[in-house]
Specification:
Blueprint: H1 2-18, H2 40-43, H3 72-76, E1 83-89, H4 92-103, H5 110-117, H6 122-128, E2 132-135, H7 140-146, H8 150-162, E3 165-166, E4 171-173, H9 185-191, E5 196-198, E6 208-216, H10 220-231, E7 236-244
Parallel strand pairs: 1-7, 2-3, 2-6, 6-7
Antiparallel strand pairs: 4-5
Helix pairs in contact: 4-5, 5-8
């Protein structure tokens, strides 16, 4: 048995020498292989969210020092969720990889996406101590067209990592909406108004819900989902995303 294990390791190392793995972003050979499956150059093009940030929506401030505090938007209009956090700024390597994952059907990239972002979300999730993870749903029309819900595929890996039960189908998108990316910020909140509902509200009653999506832009979608969850009896809602756009 030990001989087999040693031989397998030797064979794997030999294959890496003659057929080195390629970076999932730039397709250049990787000399040091990690779970991210990115080369050193592409890893340097990943931009974690830096503190200080808004204590509510997680928006990073431009100042390099200082304490976390509420941004002006959250002071003027409190959020329906307890807090939102993203791991990375939506640019560079993570933007390219998420695009390939969602629109070029490279579903294997979900493991790279989680490997790149997980360490920046672990503490927040542990502190929130959720009872259940709920991915933001797609409308059935878009789901048929794309073939998968990116929030579910990535959420499955996070649910296992954080040892949380994931509810795939309770939160529903009950009406078709124009893709948010096609709309200006001023129209996004109205676009998703009344677009979500719970199939079985009792399943989230008095539970701490971790709402998950891939990218936080204006936050209109996760805000509307959070309102539905809280109104349906959730004890609290927190939002986590892989990335958020620069403001």
């Amino acid at each position: 048995m030990l001989f087999n294990l040693n031989f397998n390791n030797f064979f794997s190392s030999l294959m890496d020498i003659f057929f080195p793995p390629l970076c999932h972003r730039c397709k250049e050979p990787i000399t040091t292989v990690t779970d991210t499956k990115l080369c050193t150059k592409c890893l340097s093009d990943v931009f974690p969210i830096r503190f200080p940030i808004c204590k509510s929506c997680g928006r990073p401030f431009l100042t390099e020092n200082g304490e976390d505090h509420l941004c002006s938007d959250c002071v003027l209009k409190p959020q329906p969720y307890e807090a939102a956090r993203a791991a990375l700024i939506f640019k560079g390597s993570i933007k390219d990889i998420i695009y390939k994952f969602k629109y070029q059907y490279k579903v294997h990239l979900r493991r790279s996406i989680t490997a790149i972002s997980a360490e920046y979300l672990d503490k927040f999730v542990a502190d929130f101590a959720p009872d259940i993870l709920i991915p933001v749903p797609l409308h059935k029309k878009r789901l048929r067209k794309r073939g998968f819900n990116q929030a579910i595929l990535i959420g499955e890996i996070f649910a296992k990592r954080w040892d949380i039960k994931m509810s795939r189908n309770n939160l529903k998108r009950i009406r078709w909406t124009e893709p948010q990316v096609n709309l200006p910020a001023s129209q996004r909140e109205k676009n998703v108004l009344g677009a979500f509902a719970l199939k079985t509200p009792a399943l989230i009653a008095d539970k701490r819900v971790l709402l998950f999506d891939d990218v936080y832009t204006t936050g209109s979608t996760v805000k509307e989902c959070s309102k539905v969850l809280v109104k349906s009896g959730a004890a609290s809602v927190a939002v986590v995303t892989i990335a958020r756009t620069e403001l």
